Amino acid sequence: DAGITQSPRHKVTETGTPVTLRCHQTENHRYMYWYRQDPGHGLRLIHYSYGVKDTDKGEVSDGYSVSRSKTEDFLLTLESATSSQTSVYFCAISLTSGSTDTQYFGPGTRLTVL
Amino acid sequence: SQQGEEDPQALSIQEGENATMNCSYKTSINNLQWYRQNSGRGLVHLILIRSNEREKHSGRLRVTLDTSKKSSSLLITASRAADTASYFCATPISSGSARQLTFGSGTQLTVLP
């Protein structure tokens, strides 16, 4: 699992509340990613990071923000959760070998917004 | 938008049979990857094939790549119940400040004992 942990693993919250998901890695990887996975949509990229304090938007970034104040932690925040953000969230790191990048995923966080 | 699309969406076979999944993509790539996801778990990298390769093997996995048709196939031979999972193809895209992969929506494989 490339030393990737996610917390919490499960969360139930109410619409309008803020939620922060944490991704922690122990191997000093530069690139980190947040995805959401929904039935029929596969994995969709929310935000990614290419270094401390360096982040950029992915395909479905609306309603989400991220922060990376140290290499090992990449936080995903839902400022005001909505029911459409009910999903399974995966964090990933990227390993580069030459010109190819392979991603390794955390175990996921199942978020339910009521 | 998704670059790769898997076909079929779902596949059910008997143990011992071979399973074939296909992936089509839209733009030029320098590699294509396959991942597996067991129920309730994260994705696991299976195999990578480069654009200058036509076929690659890893254990019971055989991947082909046809860049002229922009398609790839994943063959699992002599399937086992433990192969039951979702399988995703992934292709790199050049966007923004980091290397990204885009994933298809997956093929759900069920291997019946």
Structure description:
The complex is a heterodimer of chains A (114) and B (113). With 114 residues, chain A is mainly β. Chain A is 0% helix and 62% strand. Chain A contains no helices and 11 strands. In chain A, strands 2, 4, 5, 6, 9, 10 and 11 form a 7-stranded mixed beta sheet that branches. In chain A, strands 1-3-8-7 form a 4-stranded antiparallel beta sheet, with no helix packed on it. In chain A, a hairpin with a 2-residue loop joins strand 7 and strand 8. The termini of chain A are far apart. The mean pLDDT of chain A is 94. In chain B, strand 7 and strand 8 form a beta hairpin. Chain B is built from no helices and 11 strands. Chain B has 113 residues and is mainly β. In chain B, strands 2, 4, 5, 9, 10 and 11 form a 6-stranded mixed beta sheet that branches. The model of chain B has no long low-confidence stretch (mean pLDDT 91). In chain B, 0% of the residues lie in helices and 60% in strands. Chains A and B meet through strand 5, strand 6, strand 9 and strand 10 of A and strand 5, strand 9 and strand 10 of B.
Distance between the termini of chain A: 31 Å
Strand content of the residues of chain B, in percent? over 45%
> What overall form of chain B do the CA principal axes indicate?
globular
Mean pLDDT of chain A: 94
Number of helices of chain B: 0
The total count of helices of chain A amounts to: 0
Largest sheet of chain A: 7 strands, mixed
* Unreliable residue stretches of chain B: none
CA-atom Rg of chain A in angstroms: 13 Å
Question: Would you tell me the overall average pLDDT of chain B?
Answer: 91
Question: Number of DSSP strands of chain B?
Answer: 11
Q: What order do the SSEs of chain A take from the amino end to the carboxyl end, as H and E?
A: EEEEEEEEEEE
Shape descriptor of chain A reads globular
SSE ordering of chain B? EEEEEEEEEEE
